[in-house]
Amino acid sequence: MSRYLGECIDSVLAQDYPRIEYLVVDGGSTDGSLELLERYHDRLSYTTGPDRGPSDAIHKGFRQAKGEILAWLNADDTLLPGAVGTAASYLSSHPEIDVVYGEGWWIDENGATIRRYPTQPFDARLLERDCFICQPAAFLRASSYRRCELDPLNRSFDYDLWVRMTKAGFRFAHIGEYLANSRMHRGAMTISQRLPLFRATMDLLRRHYGYVPLSWIFGYTAYRIDYRDQFFEPLQPSLWKYLAALLVGLCWNRRHPFRFLGEWLATPIRYVFRKRKRG
User: Fold this and answer.
1) Pairing state between β 23-26 and 45-48
2) Which pTM does this prediction carry?
3) How many whole angstroms from its chain centre is CA 157?
4) How large is the angle between the packed helices 257-266 and 214-226, nearest 10 degrees?
5) How much is the CA Rg of the chain, to the nearest whole Å?
6) Torsion, Cα of 220, 226, 229, 232 (10° steps)
7) pLDDT tens by residue, the chain, 279 residues
């Protein structure tokens, strides 16, 4: 991700908030990232070495961090001007809130805006069906995070964290300000690791809620059939995919077959397509 790393770093260093502890955890890059990081050595701290994936790296960074508010950026994402100050001000004036998240944009590999990230006001029931929190636009109280840390091995790390914090009673708030850009490109984990991420998310939903909604089942089934990434290559619905999704969904929802059958019968194929088209 060295192509995007400088822009990511600059977006943090350009924040107007005066007290930022900036830690970069590198997994042993050989693409020029370390040389780039060294140019910023007087403005951030970095470590490098093998890890077990992005969630493990973030977990290590948060264990080192000393601040009262935590946030993380993947190397290809960026903060928008004033994001840190906006989040810190909100959490300072709302002591009852554990996590605050704002609006975000999807951007392409060149930084051009694709469209708005599909965030939603916080709703615990909606979280059972979709991860609507824009992760780079989310800020957590460190004291809250220490009681519900990231799973270092979970591929759906941010979604899993939000679900576990919600179930543990932590409080979330959504604000309307745009705080971050989430970059979508062919090398992004969301695109390049589509199949394992589908499985990880479906495992997460079944583990936490005992049920995998049709929207995820349909997207997973369609991907197994045509391998379209469902972002740059929109999902193409068909009767065959819809029928196949019934069998796949019954396998994933063995404990709730009638619930899934009811959802499948009540959901027209065009509606399923519209829900999963967002990516």
Assistant:
1) parallel
2) 0.92
3) 7
4) 80
5) 19
6) -140
7) 889 999 999 999 999 999 999 999 998 888 889 999 999 999 999 999 888 888 899 999 999 999 999 999 999 999 999 999 999 999 999 999 999 999 999 999 999 999 999 999 999 999 999 999 999 999 999 999 999 999 888 878 899 999 999 999 999 999 999 999 999 999 998 899 999 999 999 999 999 999 999 999 999 999 999 999 999 999 988 889 999 999 999 999 999 999 999 999 988 665 555 554 444
